[in-house]
Write a structure and sequence with these properties.
With about 140 residues, the protein is an all-alpha fold. Helices cover about 75% and strands about 0% of the residues. It is built from seven helices and no strands. The mean pLDDT is about 80.
Length: about 140
Amino acid sequence: MNTDDINLAYKVRHALNENLDALPASTTERLAAARALALSRKKADAPAVAPAKRDWRRSWFDVDTLFSGAGLGRLAVAVPMLALVIGLGGVYQYQQQQQIAELAELDAAVLADELPLTAYLDQGFNAYLESQQRHQ
């Protein structure tokens, strides 16, 4: 309801209340009876029930709640997330091991003196190393 509707309702109520004393007695009795009938048919308000506090540890680790509908829903989210985290960790470790192996190979080549002396003086040393790795 916007403010225009509320203002109109107040104006209508005020206009009806002004002429309330001028209504005939039979009309006021009929209005009173209709109001009483409407109030008797009104549904009783449901009492407000506060949700019970649940212990999250019990809901996650209790076998009865774990295999209920809500517990399976939580597992359906938790298991793929755990698999994703483990998979990303594995990919990261693999990439790190690859990088370490490449650096170790380069260090071994430098220490074994398999490179010509001009390679150390050249500004394109990294390009030379990459070309050597491609040939192997």
